[in-house]
# Entry
Amino acid sequence: LAEAQRPILGICFGAQMLAAATGGEAMPIGQGRAFLGVFGNEEASGEIWRGPYVRWHGDHFTAPPGATVLARDGGTIQAFQQANRLGVQFHPEATPDIVRGWVARYADRVDGPAVIAAADRLATPTALYAEMVRRVLEPGA
# Structure
């Protein structure tokens, strides 16, 4: 798909695959580190990328050649764009119910009540969804 210049949106593992398929590299963060919870981004190209958003990953990636990094936090790229391809490491699709399931599965690694409370406070990221779609359908706009 990337070679065909079709619009692509990759979320979490999809962003890692997209980065790797277009010249970047995906790898474990290492040392048992993982982002499991709700976090903002230290660096963001605009407020829409600042978050906070749900993150649930122990891997990271390098940006592919020619990509623009839109958000970064804790040494990991959280969003990038390369032409009409967009990858986000965080989970804009994660509802509070999805987060509850992840917390139950990873109860030994997270402060469950705190993560669930943070996820419950997040608003549906409608503006982010619109921006992500715009970027893959109209990359030069």
Notes: The helical segments are 13-21, 47-50, 96-105, 112-121, 126-137. Strands lie at 8-11, 26-28, 35-39, 43-44, 53-57, 59-61, 68-73, 76-82, 85-88. The chain has a mean pLDDT of 92. Residues 126-137 form the longest helix (12 residues).
